[in-house]
Amino acid sequence: MRRSLKCVYCAEVATTNDHVIARCLLEKPYPPDLKTVPSCRACNAAYKADEEYLLAIMAQAGFVPSLMSKVEKDGIVDRMLQGSSGLDARIINSLRVADDGRVYMTPEEVRIANVARKVAFGLYCHRYTPKKLPSLADFFALEPLHNEDDKNFIVVLAHTERFQPRRWIHVQTIKPPGSRPIQVFDYMFVRNWYLRDFERLFCVMRFHETIWAAVRCPEPPNRKHPKCRVEHRYDGRQEPL
Ligand SMILES: [Zn+2]
């Protein structure tokens, strides 16, 4: 069986193409060259709920105009919430009123991490085209670091102030009337994201400039030095790949 006929997530027969970055997380008109991976119908549908949850969370919490319009009457998130009592209940459960009377959001991080891992996995497969597909279990979303000083801006799954973004790959940039350009989705592959995982490869993603995610990826295939099997770590220990 050709690899392209297997679901990249579960290895069952693929009958659909799953968008690596779901279209619901982007803006219309969609970029023309969106990446997809072969997927079975069950896996494709399973991610949809988490992707819609992520969109609803961002629309409630984000400050960019394109997001804010989604929660207004008949906006896409407004319609999603009206059509799904389960999603509506999840959003309500994510909101907390603090002692100072302000409303804070505590999103379900597992669901956001689930989307982040899936997107990183797809981007990784397209970028490094490994002969043998890695397992989704080899991709780890970083634990969330919340910014205690400004809880209205939800900072999810690791954002460090020291990080200097340089090589963002902009999948979609929009320019709403009267607004500065907004990065709808961008990402980059970096090493040295933070010390505990020194020299490891990470996929760092930004969704609507609102939610950041960092996912640790497996070591990509090294085509130039295929016999190099040992990685030298910063602490002097050696670890087989
Ligand atoms: Zn599947």
Give the overall average pLDDT. Answer: 79
Sequence of strands across the biggest β-sheet: 5-9-8-7-6
Broad structural category: alpha+beta
Shape: globular
Q: List the uncertain runs.
A: 145-162, 225-241
Q: Could you tell me which ligands this complex binds, including any ions or cofactors?
A: zinc ion
| N→C terminal distance | 28 Å
Q: How many β-strand stretches?
A: 11
Strand content: 15-25%
Count of structural domains: 1
Helix content: 25-40%
- Main sheet characteristics: 5 strands, antiparallel
Compute the number of helices. 5
Return Rg in Å.
19 Å
SSE sequence, one letter per element: EEHHHHEEHEEEEEEE
Feature tags:
alpha+beta, five-stranded antiparallel β-sheet, 11 strands, 27% helix
Describe the structure concisely for a colleague:
The protein has 5 helices and 11 strands, in the order ββααααββαβββββββ. With 241 residues, the chain is of the alpha+beta class. The chain starts with 15 loop residues before the first strand and ends with a strand.
Explain how this protein is built:
The protein is α+β, with helices and mostly antiparallel strands and 241 residues long. The chain has one domain. The protein has five helices and eleven strands. The protein has helices at residues 41-61, 65-71, 76-83, 85-94, 109-128; strands at residues 16-19, 36-39, 95-97, 103-105, 140-141, 169-174, 182-191, 201-207, 211-217, 230-232, 238-240. Helix 1 packs across helix 2 (65-71) and helix 3 (76-83) packs across helix 4. The longest helix is centred in the N-terminal third of the chain and has 21 residues, at 41-61. The chain is globular, with a radius of gyration of 19 Å. 31% of the residues are buried. Bound molecules: zinc ion (ZN). Zinc ion binds at residues 7, 9-10, 12, 39-40, 42-43.
